[in-house]
Amino acid sequence: MLPVSDRGLNYGDGLFETMRIVGSRPILADLHWQRLEMGLERLRISVSRNTIETQLQQLLDRAAAARRREGIVKILVSRGDSGRGFVPTGQAGPTVVISWFELPSHPVQWYRDGVQLVLCKLRLPHRPQLAGLKHLNCLDYVLAGLELPGEAGVQGLLLDQEGMLIEALSSNLFLVVQGNLYTPLLHRCGIAGTMRRWIMETVAPELEVTLLEKDLPLETLYETDEVFICNSVFGVVPVAGVGDRRWQRGPVTAAVQRRVMMLFDA
Description:
Elements: H1 7-11, E1 14-22, E2 25-26, H2 29-43, H3 49-65, E3 71-78, E4 95-101, H4 108-113, E5 115-124, H5 139-146, E6 154-160, E7 165-168, E8 172-177, E9 180-184, H6 194-207, E10 211-214, H7 218-221, E11 226-231, E12 235-242, E13 245-246, H8 251-264
Parallel strand pairs: 5-6, 5-12, 9-10
Antiparallel strand pairs: 1-2, 1-3, 3-4, 6-7, 8-9, 8-11, 11-12, 12-13
C-alpha cells in the first residue's frame, strides 16, 4: 500500500512509463527503459532496472496465466517515503508500483478519418530540467484536459509560453510538408514519447523521409500537407482538422501507420 507520506503523492516526485503489451511483451521496451533511466538519473532517484523488470515480469506472468496477453502496463516510480518538506530526507528508498490496464478500444474511423485538435488556452511553462520526461507533475495537462468538451475524437493541442507547437494532450505531434516530416523541439517542455522517438530514429529512415526537429510556431500548422499524432498505446492517428483548417490522411501518414501496425502485430 502506498503510504500517505510518499513523495510521489505529496510532491509529484517521481516518474512513470506507459507500455503497450502485445503477446505478453512490452512494445518499444528498450526506449521506455532508456527514458525511465534517464529520468531517474536526472531526478537522482536510485533504483535498479533489474528490480523494476523483475516486478514487471511477475505481473506479466500473472496476466498471461489469466489469458490476458494484450493490454497496458503503467510503471510508477517515486522517491518514496523520505520525510516531510521539499528536501528529501530519510532512507526509506523508492516506491515502485506497476499496474495492468485493459487496452482501450479506439474507433477504426480514427485511423482512417482522423481526430480533431482543439487549441488549449493553457500554455505549457518552460521547465528545461524536466523537459522530455514523463514525470508525475502533470497538473498542467489536467487543466488543459478540463478545457476539452469531452467528445470522442477530440484531442487537445498544446503550445508553450512563446506560442510554439509542443504536442497534443497525451501524444506527440508530426507535420508533413512537401513529403518531409517535422516535429516540435521538446528541450524546454513537453514529453518526448517513445513512439515519437521510434518514428524519428527507425521509421523515417526506413521510409527514406527527411525528418526535422525544430521550433514550430502555431502558424506552421496551417501550412502543412498532413498532420498526425502518436503515442505508444494507440500508435499513429491522422489529424482531420484544427479550427477551420482541414486535412485528409496523406501518403506519409499512411506509410507511418502501416509500419506501426507491423510493430503492434509482431
